[in-house]
Amino acid sequence: DAAEKGGHEYFMLKEIEEQPEALANTLRGHFVDGRVVLDEQRLADQDLRDIDKVFVVACGSAYHSGLVAKYAIEHWCRLPVEVELASEFRYRDPVLDRDTLVVAVSQSGETADTLEAIRHAREQKARVLAVCNTNGAQIPRESDAVLYTHAGPEIGVASTKAFLAQVAANYLVGLALASARGTKYPDEVAREFAELEAMPQAVSTVLGTAPQVRELARDLATAKAVLFLGRHVGYPVALEGALKLKELAYMHAEGFAAGELKHGPIALIEEGLPVVVVMPSPKGRAVLHSKLLSNIREIQARGARTIVIAEEGDDTVRPFADHLIEIPAVPTLLQPLVSTIPLQVLAAEIARAKGYDVDKPRNLAKSVTVE
Ligand code: G6P
């Protein structure tokens, strides 16, 4: 057991460290002759060209990976994208037809809600593309196209490397659609793919923040609640950071879109409340950056304890960050691949500081095969 954990106390900590490799494995082999390609495609290219709407359906962390995908797919493919909790999607009456692509994201490929969602979609003649970490699982078997993540087996119940691989695979789905539909030239697809290929290195770099985050975690272990704020692709990262903390440390944690702060969440701010803020790049998203900066200023003035995740060299945040965690500068749309990492470490280390079982949090299952 100790050997399997590679010297780590928990599988989850090992899996967090395996993320550069999981990412590289997921990307490998997907850029062929100027196009990004899927693993299995039982659809004609023309079917992909005819798609006029995309739904991403998923549960838990996979759902958060879908929220990230929305920003990338809309931008790259100029297609409307809705992201839906699988358990809600199937009990509504979603408007689907043969020109709708439903992307089902599932690590296990066996999640009951996601499986039933794609069955419903197929009955309505929608096309289904599965993003899955498990070869031959039920969801990919029942799909028209498949892209496998290659995160390897994940033992920790709370998803880390499988989540990161899902985020990466969803980018590939976006680029595959852009390739098939001609919304991007091959050289643009090549450039985006090359940027993705540089990400495992960036993830390795950000893993270097772990000792600093561990120290912070010991401090936060007694907090009653933690808030997470982000905008654009940082918003799903905030949601994922909060989910990890609930799952592992049994703390009240909530993620908010920072722009909503004054519409409610600011009422929660009180002396000493830890608030984690995921900052966009000051260069890549200057306008959003300045809006978030004023958010941090506001909450700090009300006594919150600010924990800021910001691009290295972003000195404008320093005066407002009680605790600064620096991440490498990467292309804006890809930032979740690095900004998520410190939040995973934070949740795991708070759980460890509280003496909880990081790999097997109470009441949770790795894969939920009943509704
Ligand atoms: C469970 C797991 C989560 C996971 C979710 C969806 O709740 O505890 O970590 O994100 O199921 O699982 P899937 O296998 O469909 O990605």
TrEMBL record:
EC number, UniProt record: 2.6.1.16
Domain SIS: 44-183, 216-361
Major subcellular location class: cytoplasm
Cellular localisation: Cytoplasm
UniProt entry tagged with the keyword Cytoplasm: yes
GO molecular function, one term: transaminase activity
Active site: 366 (for fru-6p isomerization activity)
Source superkingdom: Bacteria
Keywords, ordered alphabetically: Aminotransferase, Cytoplasm, Glutamine amidotransferase, Repeat, Transferase
Catalysed reaction equations from the record: D-fructose 6-phosphate + L-glutamine = D-glucosamine 6-phosphate + L-glutamate
Function per UniProt: Catalyzes the first step in hexosamine metabolism, converting fructose-6P into glucosamine-6P using glutamine as a nitrogen source.
Protein's UniProt name: Glutamine--fructose-6-phosphate aminotransferase [isomerizing]
Taxonomic lineage of the native organism: Bacteria, Bacillati, Actinomycetota, Actinomycetes, Pseudonocardiales
Gene that encodes it: glmS
